[in-house]
Amino acid sequence: MSRRTALRRLAAHEGRWLVSLGRWVARQRIGVAPGDLALGYAAAQGALVYGLTFVCVVETVGLSVLLAGLPGVHAVMLVVDVYTVLTILGFQAAAVTRPHVLTADALWLRDGARREIRIPLERIAAVRYDLRFTKAPEKDGDEVMELRVGGQTSVTVELSEPVVAVRLLGQRETARTVRFHADDARAAVAALRARLTEPGGGAAPETGGGRATAPETGRAAVRQG
């Protein structure tokens, strides 16, 4: 990827979280249409984000006092500190305003303002509650993709055929198993299973020890959002 393309993607990401800040204040969600079910995931990281924001605010005030006699340096540091606070809050705002979305024909999984993955319901072979904690992020592999929140995932979706995900800087990855977090994971699993059993909803959900598979179709569409 060229440097220009990388910078363009990063600029687009900055724009998305800035927009998310405004939507957060207005209590609006992005990409959730009437009839869609929003599956929130931001609560697991809330305490960490707000704690870090508090620390940064205290640092900003402290530096303002220490640098009061150096107007030029004070101005520069104030801009940096304020932007840092906005970035942290934007991270949380993007997660709040861009929840996972269950539509009539697809499951949209979001990673804040960084990426968005569309999984057609007909592609889902099994879904289950599966709480996992990861101490340190590991590179996804073996066609397994994880959208961790607060170092954890709580829902595992297995696919009959892979989907393609595009990361922030354009790297494309293929996954047959996707793990993500939802604030109310059991309710999310129940809602997804109910949607799958509706006429035209896709494969039957996992029940007991068995597992149903969905008919294979072409690759899923992916959009960066």
What can you tell me about this protein's structure?
It is a single chain. The protein has 225 residues and is of the alpha+beta class. Helices cover 39% and strands 25% of the residues. The protein has helices at residues 3-25, 43-66, 71-97, 185-197, and strands spanning 37-39, 100-102, 106-110, 116-120, 124-133, 144-147, 152-166, 172-180, 222-223. The chain contains four helices and nine strands, in the order H-E-H-H-E-E-E-E-E-E-E-H-E. The model is unreliable at 204-225 (pLDDT under 50). The longest helix has 27 residues, at 71-97. It has a five-stranded antiparallel sheet, with helices on one face. The protein has a four-stranded mixed sheet with strand order 5-7-8-6, with helices on one face.
DSSP helix count? 4
Query: Biggest β-sheet: count, sense, barrel?
Result: 5 strands, antiparallel
Q: Please report the distance between the alpha carbons of the first and last residues.
A: 19 Å
Shape: elongated
Query: What is the total tally of β strands?
Result: 9
Order of helices and strands: HEHHEEEEEEEHE
In terms of quaternary structure, the protein is single chain
